[in-house]
TrEMBL record:
<feature type="signal peptide">
    <location>
        <begin position="1"/>
        <end position="24"/>
    </location>
</feature>
<dbReference type="InterPro" id="IPR002508">
    <property type="entry name" value="MurNAc-LAA_cat"/>
</dbReference>
<dbReference type="GO" id="GO:0008745">
    <property type="term" value="F:N-acetylmuramoyl-L-alanine amidase activity"/>
</dbReference>
<dbReference type="Pfam" id="PF01520">
    <property type="entry name" value="Amidase_3"/>
</dbReference>
<keyword id="KW-0732">Signal</keyword>
<keyword id="KW-0378">Hydrolase</keyword>
<feature type="region of interest" description="Disordered">
    <location>
        <begin position="51"/>
        <end position="70"/>
    </location>
</feature>
<feature type="domain" description="MurNAc-LAA">
    <location>
        <begin position="128"/>
        <end position="246"/>
    </location>
</feature>
<dbReference type="InterPro" id="IPR050695">
    <property type="entry name" value="N-acetylmuramoyl_amidase_3"/>
</dbReference>
<protein>
    <submittedName>
        <fullName>N-acetylmuramoyl-L-alanine amidase</fullName>
        <ecNumber>3.5.1.28</ecNumber>
    </submittedName>
</protein>
Length: 250
């Protein structure tokens, strides 16, 4: 191309009349968000924080519980017998779910953005309000249990029954999807159907959007722990949770 031709091409691009090839090949934000969950906002709450153990004063500070009382800001969570912390396990699962939901077009916000020994929180009341601030279509709080009873294993999903039918429906949808994907409901929760309705969890109490908390299994059980400590197992959990969100919002 002549010098004059190059100058004319540069002017055309600058005026926006023609996009350069590199720009034309780059998908825009709308294209990246195309998918069955386009326009949807999902909040994921990976429980606890790896550094909670290092900040006892902050973590034990009382905060509102959403029922007129107060409770500790957070806890350290549990761990497998081999030492995998709950905070790390749920963080890894949440990241997998986040990636899958974003590929489906959703906008995803996490209540914490790291899994660090140098950080703590956020507190349970802040976690519960995150979905409200984000105007989320739903919030899913991801945890694991630490029951010492021998043979206690399986998942269960929790909702606050007086915080709206939508939250209970989200919990049921999540429970049904996990079962459909071959994950067993907890054998140590009353009813044995994997659904638990409670009013004592601030994360659920403060939420004004459909919210459910899932305890993916018992980290102190060797069967559940084996699934939690493998990439294949965490992928199975993430795939099931993604499918649950898709079913609920579909």
């Amino acid at each position: 191309m002549s010098a004059r031709g190059a100058l004319l091409a540069a002017i055309v691009v600058a005026l926006g009349l023609l996009a350069p090839a590199a720009y034309a090949e780059r998908p825009d934000a709308t294209a990246r968000r195309a998918g069955p969950l386009a326009g949807r906002v999902v909040v994921l709450d990976p429980g606890h924080q790896l550094g909670n153990q290092n900040f006892p004063r902050q973590v034990n500070r009382p905060v509102p519980d959403g029922r007129g009382g107060r409770k500790p800001c957070n806890t350290t969570g549990t761990a497998t017998n081999a030492g995998l912390p709950e905070a790390t396990f749920v963080w890894r699962v949440a990241q997998l779910v986040e990636a899958r939901l974003e590929r489906l077009g959703a906008t995803v916000q996490l209540t914490r953005t790291s899994n660090s020994l140098d950080e703590w929180g956020p507190c349970v009341d802040v976690r519960g309000r995150t979905g409200n601030r984000a105007h989320a279509d739903l919030e899913l709080s991801i945890h694991a249990d630490g029951v010492l009873e021998r043979g206690a294993r399986g998942f269960h999903v929790i909702a606050a029954p007086d915080r709206g039918r939508a939250s209970v429906r989200l919990a049921r949808t999540t429970r049904d999807t996990l079962v459909h994907r071959g994950l067993p409901p907890a054998n140590y929760i009353a009813g044995g159907d994997g659904l638990d309705l409670r009013t004592d969890l601030a994360t659920l109490n403060f939420s004004r959007v459909p919210t459910a908390m899932v305890e993916l299994g018992n980290m102190r059980d060797r069967v559940d722990a084996r699934r939690m400590t493998t990439g294949k197992g965490r992928t199975a959990y993430a795939s099931a949770l993604t499918r649950a969100v898709l079913r609920y919002l579909g």
